[in-house]
Design a protein that fits this description.
It is built from 4 helices and 17 strands. It is mainly beta. Strands 5, 6, 7, 8, 9, 10 and 17 form a 7-stranded antiparallel sheet that branches. Strands 11, 12, 13, 14, 15 and 16 form a 6-stranded antiparallel sheet that branches. It has a 4-stranded antiparallel sheet with strand order 1-4-2-3. It is elongated and about 70 Å long.
């Protein structure tokens, strides 16, 4: 009896204390979750009983969804506060999981996410000091940090690590582009000794999806600041208004009319070369991603 009470007490602490915290109106989906078997005819569980079941499945259960109306209990193998989480906004459910201090994706920590067509100047958002959504992460709508969240209602996510970059001990940086939650472009960079604004450069490039050696190819532009309204810009074209632009990445950040690809709207737009070697952007042989995300690994 003592062990049972101890288990229930632990579960209540997990559900309400510093281990687990509730997020009303959301549930985690497609996480490998399962509905635990129930011995009662109505198969309804109290929230405490659901928490006990999750704590007993400590090798697989990372969180749980609970519906108080009928006692439905779903054990999840994943967590809500991750970049890869697929969530559903549903007022009938509540999510219970670990208190999160940052958004992760495997061994990477998300430091910035922007949504295409949101109408914001996302470079200003990138550089805006003091904006740190991860310091109040449990108050954020999960769409703001999920790779599946491409709503302009949540145009960007910014971590405090952007302000603390120089003291964070960053080892590696990753830029990722996503369409419907699928990664369509990934580049990694040496982050040691970098700053928030110079890590995205040819000398620091480690991996990319193209068959050409970008370092040997010597792009004219390879920087976050790019040229005028083209940001995260990797291009061979030295003349801005020369629309024979061969390159790999262009992010038109604000309204511009120099070339057809600059007119893609609404801004920002994340345009990337889909070919194995690069693309001539004037031919519209490029992909348009919904989400741009930046991650870091620490030493």
């Amino acid at each position: 009896m003592f062990l049972l009470l101890l288990s229930i007490g632990l579960a209540l602490n997990v559900a309400h204390g510093e281990f687990y915290r509730g997020k009303e109106g959301y549930r985690l989906i497609n996480s490998g979750g399962s509905n635990p078997e129930c011995s009662r005819s109505d198969c309804s569980l109290s929230r405490s009983e659901c928490a006990v079941l999750c704590s007993q499945e400590n090798l697989t259960c990372m969180s749980f969804n609970y519906k108080s109306a009928d006692g439905s209990c779903v054990l999840n193998q994943g967590e809500l506060y991750t970049f890869d989480a697929r969530i559903e906004e549903n007022l009938s459910w509540a999510y219970y999981g670990p208190v999160a201090k940052e958004v992760s994706s495997d061994e990477w920590t998300l430091v910035f996410k922007a949504v295409s067509g949101s109408g914001i100047n996302f470079i200003e958002s990138w550089s805006q000091p003091g904006v740190a959504h991860d310091l109040e992460l449990t108050n954020q709508n999960p769409d703001s940090f999920s790779k599946y969240g491409a709503s302009s209602s949540y145009p960007f996510y910014r971590s405090h690590w952007l302000d603390d970059w120089s003291t964070a001990g960053i080892k590696e940086v990753k830029l990722g582009l996503y369409e419907n939650g699928t990664e369509v472009l990934s580049m990694t960079f040496d982050g040691v000794g970098s700053t928030r604004d110079n890590w995205f450069s040819k000398p620091r490039l480690r991996t990319h999806p193209y068959t050409v050696d970008l370092s040997a190819f010597s792009p004219v532009f390879f920087s976050i600041q790019g040229h005028l309204f083209r940001k995260f810009y990797i291009s061979m074209s030295a003349v801005f208004n020369n629309c024979d632009n061969f390159g790999w990445l262009i992010v038109p950040n604000i309204v511009g009319n120099a070339c057809n690809f600059d007119k893609e709207s609404p801004k920002p737009q994340f345009l990337y070369a889909k070919g194995s070697e690069g693309t001539a952007f004037k031919n519209k042989a490029y992909g348009k991603a919904e989400v741009l995300a930046v991650f870091v690994k620490f030493v």
